[in-house]
Predict the structure.
Amino acid sequence: MTLDTIDRGVAMLVGILCAAVVVVGLGMRGDAGLFPAIAATLGLLACIGIGLDTLRSRRPDELPPSLPWHRFTIWCLCVLGLLGVMVVVGTFVALPLFLLASLRWLGHLRWAAALVIAMAFSILIYIVFVYLLAVPLPAGWLTD
Amino acid sequence: MDVLLPALGNVLAPMALLTLILGTLAGMTIGALPGLSSTMGVALCIPVTFNMPPELALILLGAVYVSSVYGGSVTAILLRTPGTDASIATALDGYPLAEAGRGGEALGMATLGSLFGGLFSVIVLIAIAPPLSTVALAFGPQEYTVLAIFGLVTIVGVASDRPLKGVLTAAVGLVLAAVGLDAFTGVQRFTFGQSELFDGVPLLPVLIGLFSVSQAFNLCVPAEGGVLTGKEQKLKGRSLPLWHDIRRSLRTMLRSSVIGSVVGILPGAGTSIASFISYNEARRHSPTPERFGKGELEGVAASESANNAVTGGTLIPTLTLGIPGNAVTAVFVGGLTIHGLIPGPSLFTNHAETTYTLILSLLFANVLFAILGLWLCRYLVVVTKVPGAVLGPMILVFSVIGTYALRNAVFDVWLAIAFGVVGYFMERWRYPAAPLVIALILGPILEVNFRRSMQISHWDLTTFFTRPLSLTLCLLVVLALAYPLWTQWRRRKLQR
């Protein structure tokens, strides 16, 4: 998919959202919806402009940098896992697990190095945020 | 004077000095790492400052800002890989100097140039900001409306080589700014029943998402995990340039500092623009222009003086008018807000001591990065050997924990992650993030003041043209709209 194709897709999707905002905004009580309607109209015009620009573009169309889907998927799963485990089980179980998984599977570090870095960074986070800044981080099951 | 002395006392307090040192070291490290930006550095430091007194918080943020701009020169000179876009022009002459065994002189000149530019811009900030804040007291809703439009128009004009994409992201930012309870009618706008959105889309999770989380994605996802590009040059020879070279570069540093300060004041124009303009001007005025690009110390001085001079300049409209000029100062506004400091004239009246503490701390931060830079710069290169896939997870963890620390809300963390994904794809598909962020900040200012203007004038739009200040700002908006069109026309004419 070239950048022009992507731009057309983005313009269509965002254009539909902007049109929806305009319709909803104009239906709001008083002048509450005036500003969102104006902003969304501007967005809609920009989408139309981008769409037309891609159709009549004289520049050679380019390909975006290729996305390594395998690594992207692993990274997204690690991030989702971090958030899920953090809330359910607790921050200081989630953090070392996330760091260990991502350093091993994406950073390709050896297990020992990944474990040491994961534990050291988790301890640093504890010292900075819990001990020094007294931020109550999610403790999940560990408080029950 | 009755504010400066207490402010100086605040800066010289032991905790403040320690904060200054830590902020400077952190900023230099962040700046030296290619792929990490000043914006990201300041955004990540904001949650850390949450429980700090406002003075210490601003000292930390200011130190990270100015030293990260300098830090980019280290890798630009030694690796031909600018740590930040502010140092792209530095690499043009810095790396050839390093290849010729004069890397130490190049780093020394970069340090002196950055120090000169940074100090100059802080003096400009001290000189211009208070009178400008007095002028800003005369601003009414009409002036703030037009000023917000001016800020948006200029950032859109320079943010991207395709302005329509900038307009689109700015429009999205304006729509996001409208989310929440309407201040005038109490109507819920696009909250979808989420109580966390009643006060609007929280700014800091969006900033952390767009600039830090997206960067974590950039570091972890590519198959090539490292952040290095150029061949490392060992530091040899002198560690400072000769006095003769410093003396002949003084005029260049002064000219570049003026350029950087002026460029910094203009919304939208950033450090890279200032450094390239200064570099070109230095080459134009040099008796030996053919040496530029092959290892000319004046080229390094020009670039570094300009990019550090931008730092003080950008803070002028930010602190006096509440109009952030670039992404970094937009993040700065977020930092000010969470400490109860509303950017604008009140900073110089109700919070004068805190404001001057920030300004004076910038003077000290500039001196500190010069001292630490001359001593530690050769060791900073070591941090660039950390692969991106090792750095990325740490940045993500810091972003997640820092975002959660703001309001103890998991919703904010999800928001930051979502905007991180959006920011990642925006960068891949060349949609600029800066207009979105600036629109998110300027949107409420624009809407509230526009509606107030309409209420006062009974929906008479000529109210924006009948007030002298407002009319002047309208003319600036017209100029800002016309300038990109004029440069495009001129470029097409030259091509023919």
About this structure: Chain B is about 75% helix and 0% strand. The first strand of chain B starts at residue 180 and ends at 181. The mean pLDDT of chain B is 86. Residues 4-495 of chain B form one domain.
